[in-house]
Design brief:
This protein is an alpha/beta fold. It is 30% helix and 17% strand. It binds beta-D-galactopyranose.
């Protein structure tokens, strides 16, 4: 980050975890606003994000501006002590704009132009869209520059949620410029893209297109560059809006809400984080409890362990999954506090009041359709009370762990390209398995973006590190030579940043460090497993591993079929460090079995009976103990004073101990 700058707060305000929501007063008649503010105060809300989808209301026609309603709600919120995270209102262009300028609409890889009527239907590279959007930002920044209610700027909304990949002619033009800057000459691009293959050689940058739907697999380096370019195009938009805000309201910090959750991976957030004053994230529960804490830890990694802002999550059900179930009792508070445990200093929801109309009317909110007399609103009030009592936590960094999971967006996107040994490989799934196994062992871990320093970590786990440029190889070699313990897995070290295979055998760039050599990948069929000598079994993938360095210890072998007797899991001691290789997918349970041999002496900080049942996260000197089970747990052996909760941890409960 350029430097961490948190919400602007009036002098003398006691530190607190901010609490609130996206608030859409423009969906409601004026009289509802008074009730909103009354209930916000009851719940202890001190910040709301407004105007996220208000473009059509603020600018109902070209050259026509209506700020009266916005002035009024901002003043009302301010008069009631509620800060405003003011959106730049550019997330979704109004119909008059797309009717007048259909050339701002995004185009899919198949050449279909997306239409208005949903949201976020704009091309990140459209100069026309950019000009209209920046006019809006300028108007808002000028009007509210001095308003004391504004605690932060919220650029756009979830950049790239629906429009990350646009294959339009605008995108083609911008892609060519991006490539010319990256490669300098067309010869360099031809080399990087390996265009000697399939007669793909380009004579000039003008001949290049985005990877639109082709007769068969598009060039993989073209695909990887297009993904990188698309992230940069959105980042350019972020920067363009931010520059106006910085110029007109230099005292107000700027953020934009990331989407670190599940499989979302279009944006290079490790890089984007450098463009904003504090990291914000939106998270919705998609794959169960461990994915939530994993995503929170990933977000903390982007925030470089500084506090971050949970911009959106849900009080209960969402509306966009095939089946949308409400949260169970206890989950609203536990989920929020889990984010706090991993560094959130603001806890906000989508949204304040459940919409009566529109596509999100069945999405939960802080004030449900049922009103204030509901379980959800009572929990919301209770959570507000808890957050207000956690002043001691505010501003503290997430404490560094001994173990890091190296998370590499580039490997994620690269490993899952088409025309690979298996299309079933899921990068994030593998990383999540390691996270779960660590939680099961009661071992705390950080998630570190690839490229960041690894100082202080005794163990670095780099699952499926597919893409290893020379600099990353050198960093990992240096880490191990300095006494660090690296663990990596199948399909790692395979290619460089241009998607060219490292030659000489797999795991390519990491082969010497690991002391093993693999001639061929051997992915497994659906449902096929390979039993291992330690009683576990591998799925998805297997490799005939030749041990090259005699110092390598074999921790487990394959026990049947073609691979019988061959090494499956290895560890090469290097001075006081080591480099370990896991050549198959073990799943969380299989990882648990081998973890003690890979953790280089790192042990759980939890008393034995709590390991696996309780998740531990630490901020400053404060420990968060999160019940991972549906049973009550006695927190025997936990010393300290309870800031929240007590020694008897309820099902799905959290205790906070200083
Ligand atoms: C987010 C979005 C919100 C709302 C929410 C529903 O993607 O930013 O506006 O749509 O999802 O879960």
């Amino acid at each position: 980050m350029t430097g961490h700058r948190w919400l602007r707060t009036p002098d003398g305000t006691a530190p607190r975890i901010s609490y609130g929501a996206d608030y859409n007063p423009d969906q409601w008649p004026r009289e509802v606003w008074d009730e909103d503010v009354r209930l916000m105060k009851e719940a202890g809300v001190d910040v709301v994000s407004i105007a996220i989808f208000s473009w059509a209301r603020i600018q109902p026609a070209e050259g026509v501006w209506d700020f009266a309603w916005l002035d009024e709600i901002i003043d009302l919120l301010h008069a009631n002590g509620i800060g405003v995270d003011l959106a730049t209102a550019t997330a979704s262009p109004p119909p008059w704009l797309t009717m007048k300028h259909p050339e701002i609409l995004p185009v899919t890889a198949d050449g279909v132009t997306l239409t208005q009527g949903g949201r976020q239907h704009w091309r990140p590279t459209s100069p026309v869209f950019r000009a209209y959007a920046l006019e809006m930002v300028e108007k808002l920044a000028e009007r509210y520059a001095e308003h004391p209610a504004i605690v932060a700027w919220h650029v756009s909304n979830e950049l790239g949620c629906h429009n990350a990949y646009d294959y339009s002619d605008d995108a083609a033009r911008a892609f060519r410029l991006w490539l010319a800057e990256r490669y300098g000459t067309i010869e360099a691009l031809n080399h990087a893209w390996g265009t000697a293959f399939w007669s793909q050689r380009y004579g000039s940058f003008e001949e290049i297109l985005p990877p639109r739907t082709a007769a068969t697999f598009p060039n993989p380096t073209q695909q990887r560059d297009f993904i990188r370019f698309s992230s940069d195009a959105l980042k350019d938009h972020l920067i363009a809006e931010r520059e106006i805000l910085n110029r007109l309201t230099p005292g107000v910090p700027v953020t934009t809400n990331f989407m670190v959750m599940g499989e979302t991976r279009h944006a290079d957030y490790a890089d984007w984080a450098g463009e904003i004053d504090f990291v914000s994230n939106d998270h919705y529960v998609t794959e169960g409890r461990d994915e939530l804490s994993f995503s929170a830890a990933v977000t903390s990694g982007f925030a470089r362990r500084r506090p971050w802002y949970l911009m959106e999550h849900s009080t209960s059900a969402v509306n966009w999954q095939p089946i949308n179930r409400p949260k169970r009792p206890g989950e609203l508070i536990r989920d929020s506090l889990t984010h706090v445990a991993h560094g959130a200093d603001a806890v906000c929801y989508f949204q304040w009041r459940q919409s009566a109309a529109g596509a999100e009317k069945f999405h939960s909110s802080m004030v449900p359709h049922g009103g204030a007399d509901t379980r959800v609103f009572r929990d919301v009030v209770e959570l507000g009370r808890i957050l207000r009592s956690l002043g001691e936590v505010v501003g503290s960094d997430r404490a560094q762990s001994d173990v890091a999971i190296l998370f590499d967006w580039d490997s994620w996107r690269g490993a899952e390209l088409d025309s690979h040994p298996s299309e079933k490989l899921r990068y994030q799934r593998e990383a999540l398995d390691w996270w779960t196994a660590l939680l099961d062992a009661g071992v705390r871990a950080d998630v570190v973006p690839a490229g960041d320093a690894l100082d202080g970590y005794r163990v670095v786990i780099a699952p499926v590190l597919y893409s290893v440029p020379a600099a990353l190889r050198a960093q990992l070699e240096g880490y191990v030579a300095g006494g660090g313990n690296l663990v990596t897995t199948y399909f790692s070290g395979v290619v460089d940043e241009n998607d060219h295979a490292w030659l000489g055998g797999y795991p390519g760039a990491l082969r010497e460090l690991l002391g093993v050599r693999v001639e061929e990948y051997r992915p497994l069929w659906d449902g096929e497993t390979e039993p291992l000598s330690n009683g576990t079994s591998g799925s998805l993938w297997s490799e005939p591993v030749d041990v090259v360095d005699p110092a390598v210890e074999v921790l487990a072998t394959y026990t049947s079929g073609d691979l019988a007797g061959g090494a499956a899991i290895t560890r090469r001691p290097v001075g006081s460090g080591s480099a370990a290789y896991v050549s198959t997918r073990l799943g969380a349970e299989g990882i648990a079995a081998v973890l003690p041999a890979l953790l280089a002496g790192v042990e759980s900080e939890l008393p034995e009976p709590l390991r696996g049942r309780v998740e531990l996260a630490v901020r400053g000197d404060v420990r968060f103990l999160i019940n991972r089970t549906d049973d009550e747990i006695a927190l025997d052996g936990i010393e300290g004073s309870y800031l929240y909760g007590g020694a008897q941890l309820p099902a799905r409960g959290v205790a906070i101990v200083a």
